[in-house]
Amino acid sequence: CWQMALVILGAIPIMMISQAIQMIVTNGGQKQGQDHLKTAQQVVSDAVQNSRTVQALCIENELASYHGDLITKATSGAACRAIISGSGFGIANGVIFLVLAAGFWYATKLVDDG
Q1: How many alpha carbons fall within 13 Å on the CB side of residue 103?
Q2: What count of Cα atoms within 13 Å lies in the side-chain half-sphere of residue 66?
Q3: What is the spatial distance between Cα 44 and Cα 52, in angstroms, rounded to a whole number?
Q4: Are the C-beta atoms of 4 and 106 separated by less than 8 Å?
Q5: Averaged over 3-27, what is the pLDDT?
Q6: Which residues, including other chains, have CB under 8 Å from residue 99's CB and lie 6 or more apart?
Q7: What is the pLDDT of residues 40-66, one digit of tens each?
Q8: What is the full DSSP assignment across 37-89?
Q9: H or E segment and range at residue 1
């Protein structure tokens, strides 16, 4: 029984590294594009607060196209970031699953050997 515990305890650094990689990949993908989204939110907020000025200057279409450009910049590459983030998540969870499966396999081997 202590041999199995030793094997699982020895695998903890591997699981920690895989979880650290998962966190880096997931958080890194979320931070990209935040600046463009903040700017787009500020444009909409200012346009709504100053709607009379926007209407008086007839710049509704310009603000809408500027907002659309900012949203496009923020979401360009979102699919690629999502694939990378999902792959990192899957690999990290797969590593944990494989480590635990190896531990249970080793436990059955110990039981079979007596």
Answers
A1: 19
A2: 13
A3: 14
A4: yes
A5: 86
A6: 8, 11, 14, 15
A7: 888 888 888 888 887 788 888 888 888
A8: HHHHHHHHHHHHHTHHHHHHHT-HHHHHHHHHHHHHHHHTTHHHHHHHHHHHH
A9: none
**Mean pLDDT lowest for which of 8-22, 37-51, 100-114?**
37-51
Give the integer Cα–Cα distance in Å for 71 and 33: 9
- Distance (Å, rounded) from C-alpha 35 to C-alpha 8? 43
Q: Taking a C-beta distance cutoff of 8 angstroms, is the pair 74, 1 a contact?
A: no
How confident is residue 30, by pLDDT bands cut at 50, 70 and 90?
low
Give the dihedral of Cα atoms 42, 48, 52, 54; nearest 10 deg: 50
